[in-house]
Amino acid sequence: MPRMLLVQQDLCDPMVQAWEKAEKEGFPENFEQNYPVIENPQTAVFILSAGNPGMYPLVARIVKKSKGDFIRVKEAELPEFARIVQQEKDLSIGPAATVCFAGFYQALKENKIKENETIVINIGESGKRYG
């Protein structure tokens, strides 16, 4: 099973909050059932604005089984990451894809990617939808 790293932006990150709490408590039994709900999240990344992450119980178990992690990125920094992709690859990506791309760099910064690991970044959108 590949190690899963899931990313959320800091203005709507209930799964990251739940994971950090569970990790701090040593992943108690039924940890995945305990997650916050963010009412009316104030984020520009509307496609990722699930303040009530109903899939967290399933996703959290998969991430834990894979020895993975949840990562938080700063939404204010996302435009810079999108510019990097545009400049380096001549590719426009949308906000949700930019969150994934920023998460890759955050994972590197936090040493959450191991040497010689194969990395797959799931970027399911393009900037064309927003153009």
How does the helix and strand content classify structurally?
mainly alpha
CATH fold-level label: Rossmann fold
> How many strand elements?
2
Q: What is the helix tally?
A: 4
Ranges where pLDDT stays below 50 over 5 or more residues in a row are none
Order of helices and strands: EHHEHH
Looking across the biggest beta sheet, what order are the strands in?
A: 1-2
User: Strand share of the residues?
Assistant: 5-15%
What is the alpha-carbon Rg in Å? Answer: 15 Å
> How many domains, as an integer?
1
On the 0 to 100 scale, the average pLDDT is 91
How many strands, which pairing sense, and closed or not: the largest β-sheet? 2 strands, parallel
Question: Fraction of residues in helices?
Answer: 25-40%
CATH architecture: 3-Layer(aba) Sandwich
Morphology call: globular
Measured between the Cα atoms of the first and last residue, the distance is: 37 Å
Q: Tell me, what is the CATH class? A: Alpha Beta
Give a description of the structure.
This protein has a single domain (5-130), classed as Rossmann fold (3-Layer(aba) Sandwich). α3 (78-89) packs across α4. A two-stranded parallel ribbon has the order 1-2. By secondary structure, the protein is mainly α. It is globular, with a radius of gyration of 15 Å. It has four helices and two strands.
